[in-house]
Amino acid sequence: MSRLLPIAFIVWVAFTVFTVVDVALIERTRIRGLPKPLWIVVIVLVPIVGGVLWLVVGRVRAGDAAGGVRRGPIAPDDDPEFLRRLNREKAMEDRIEQLEKELRDLDDDAPQP
Questions:
Q1: 3-state SS assignment for residue 11
Q2: What is the reported pTM?
Q3: Alpha-carbon gap, residue 25 to 84, rounded angstroms
Q4: Which distant-in-sequence residues (6+ apart) come within 8 Å of 76 by Cβ?
Q5: Looking at residue 36, what DSSP letter applies?
Q6: Is 20's pLDDT higher than 70?
Q7: CA angle, 30 as apex, 25 and 33 as ends, to 5°?
Q8: 58 burial via Cβ count (<10 Å: 0-12, 13-18, 19+)
Q9: Distance CA 58, CA 64 (A)
Q10: What is the pLDDT of residue 94?
Q11: pLDDT tens-place string over residues 68-94
Q12: What does the DSSP assignment read for 13-26?
């Protein structure tokens, strides 16, 4: 039993440090319930339970931000700016191909010395 106490203490300290750092570094928009400083106080004053509460209640996962609706595109095909850029690039390639064809036609029509 006495061997488990130091290990339990290290785990408790590591968990507390992890949750406090997580609260401190997370974006304000991803916090529910209490403001950051109050979450830190809860985590420090209520060992283990405060950290578990933070992870379960106070923290909003990245995919769950804005009520479960993802912000921004998930794949390039869903990104309107990406699709616009592809269309512009395709239009430029078509224009270059047309100009090259016109240049070849002009070279073919020119008299040979």
A1: helix
A2: 0.54
A3: 35
A4: 82
A5: H
A6: yes
A7: 105
A8: buried
A9: 12
A10: 96
A11: 555 666 777 777 888 899 999 999 999
A12: HHHHHHHHHHHHHS
CB atoms within 10 A of CB 49: 11
Cα 37 vs. chain centroid, distance in angstroms? Answer: 24
Contact 19, 43 (CB under 8 A): yes
Q: If you search the block for the tokens 């036609």, which residue do you land on?
A: 105
Report which residue type is found at 5.
L
Tokens 């283990």 belong to which residue? Answer: 48
User: Within 13 Å and on the Cβ side, how many CA atoms surround 89?
Assistant: 6
Whole-number Cα distances in Å, 91 to 50, 86, 98, 101: 58, 9, 11, 15
Q: What is the DSSP string of 47-106?
A: TTHHHHHIIIIIBPPGGGTTTTPPPS-SSGGG-HHHHHHHHHHHHHHHHHHHHHHHHHHH
Q: What is the CA 44 to chain-centroid distance, rounded?
A: 29
